[in-house]
């Protein structure tokens, strides 16, 4: 019997936040290689913050994020809002070609084979013929397709998607979900922030439920329950954005990502009225 591969991501009592105010706190556990995880929770639950931390764009306030050594491509991170200024005079081809930046370096040029790969990535998302279009002329769905084409070129083993299916047409959603599921079938590890619970139930085998702190992680049918969702809403509503950074001893027991559902209330750590656990 072969030993299980090491996790791609390990959280060790992780706290992430802004100006010392925690947005995600006391998260511990592991994301195994090849996992397809929906990160869910109420508005303001820390979902986007968690992805920024995993991507390396936000340093922990406390604890650690450990990532396994990844092969070429590393991490591909697609933020919730496009970082592309629609008024900037750049073509769809050039935006997608940015996916080759690791391969090319700061000043590398595009040879014929790389130009062909850019065109193939655009074809894979249904954007043939859009190469010379200004990116500012695209619809929301077309822009999201172009951003997925850029991800194809990044060829990363770890993919982080922040609300990739929000506010776009259903046909585009279906096409992009198929692309994501194809990446998962290739063995890539994918964390995706999703608000549509029906999409979660249909496509994601595993969920991480956040409410500034981890509520549960495990198989989607066992996490996506009325009881746990209601508990997450109560935790989020009780949280005080102006409270100082909290300090809590590391808890015993495996709360956070792991192999099974972990309900994360009733740890014997009372809430104070500011909404932090100490």
Concise structural overview:
The protein is α/β, with parallel strands linked by helices and 278 residues long.
Highlighted features:
6-stranded mixed β-sheet; 278 residues; 9 strands; 3-stranded antiparallel β-sheet
Topology:
Blueprint: E1 9-18, E2 21-31, E3 36-40, H1 47-55, E4 62-67, E5 75-78, H2 92-97, H3 101-104, H4 112-124, H5 140-154, E6 158-162, H6 170-185, E7 189-193, H7 197-203, E8 206-210, E9 214-219, H8 220-223, H9 226-238
Parallel strand pairs: 3-7, 3-8, 5-6, 6-7
Antiparallel strand pairs: 1-2, 1-4, 8-9
Helix pairs in contact: 4-5, 5-6
What does this 3D model show about the protein?
- This protein is an alpha/beta fold and 278 residues long.
- The protein contains 9 helices and 9 strands.
- It has helices at residues 47-55, 92-97, 101-104, 112-124, 140-154, 170-185, 197-203, 220-223, 226-238, and strands at residues 9-18, 21-31, 36-40, 62-67, 75-78, 158-162, 189-193, 206-210, 214-219.
- The longest helix is centred in the middle third of the chain and has 16 residues, at 170-185.
- Mean pLDDT is 84; it is low at 247-256 and 263-278.
Please list the strands of the largest sheet in the order they lie side by side.
Answer: 5-6-7-3-8-9
> What is the rounded distance between the termini?
42 Å
* SS-based class: alpha/beta
Order of helices and strands: EEEHEEHHHHEHEHEEHH
Strand residues, percent: 15-25%
Helical fraction equals: 25-40%
Q: Give the mean pLDDT.
A: 84
Q: Give the count of helical stretches.
A: 9
- How many individual β-strands? 9
**Major beta-sheet overview:** 6 strands, mixed
Taking all Cα atoms into account, the compactness measure Rg is: 20 Å
GO molecular function, one term: ATP binding
Keywords: ATP-binding, Cell membrane, Membrane, Nucleotide-binding, Transport
Family: Belongs to the ABC transporter superfamily.
Protein name: Metal ABC transporter ATP-binding protein
């Amino acid at each position: 019997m072969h030993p299980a591969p090491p996790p791609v991501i390990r959280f060790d009592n992780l706290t992430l936040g802004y100006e010392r105010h925690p947005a995600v706190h006391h998260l511990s556990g592991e994301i195994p290689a090849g996992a397809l995880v929906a990160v869910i929770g109420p508005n303001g639950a820390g979902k986007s913050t968690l992805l920024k931390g995993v991507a390396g764009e936000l340093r922990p306030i406390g604890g650690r994020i450990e990532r396994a050594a990844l092969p070429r491509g590393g991490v591909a991170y697609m933020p919730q809002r496009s970082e592309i200024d629609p008024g900037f005079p750049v073509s769809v081809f050039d935006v997608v070609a940015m996916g080759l930046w690791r391969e090319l370096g700061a000043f590398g040029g595009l040879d014929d084979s790389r130009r062909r790969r850019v065109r193939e990535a655009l074809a894979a998302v249904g954007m043939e013929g859009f190469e010379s279009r200004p990116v500012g002329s695209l619809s929301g769905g077309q822009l999201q397709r172009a951003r997925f084409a850029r991800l194809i070129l990044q060829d990363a083993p770890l993919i982080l998607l922040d609300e990739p299916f929000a506010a776009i047409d259903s046909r585009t959603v279906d096409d992009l979900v198929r692309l994501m599921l194809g990446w998962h079938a290739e063995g890539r590890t994918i964390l995706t922030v999703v608000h549509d619970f029906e999409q979660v139930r249909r496509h994601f085998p595993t969920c991480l439920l956040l409410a500034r702190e981890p509520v549960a992680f495990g198989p989607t049918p066992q996490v996506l329950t009325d009881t746990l969702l209601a508990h997450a809403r109560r935790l989020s509503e009780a949280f005080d954005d102006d409270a100082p950074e909290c300090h809590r001893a590391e808890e015993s027991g495996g709360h956070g990502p792991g192999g099974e559902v972990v309900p994360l209330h009733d740890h014997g750590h009372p809430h104070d009225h500011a909404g932090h656990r100490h």
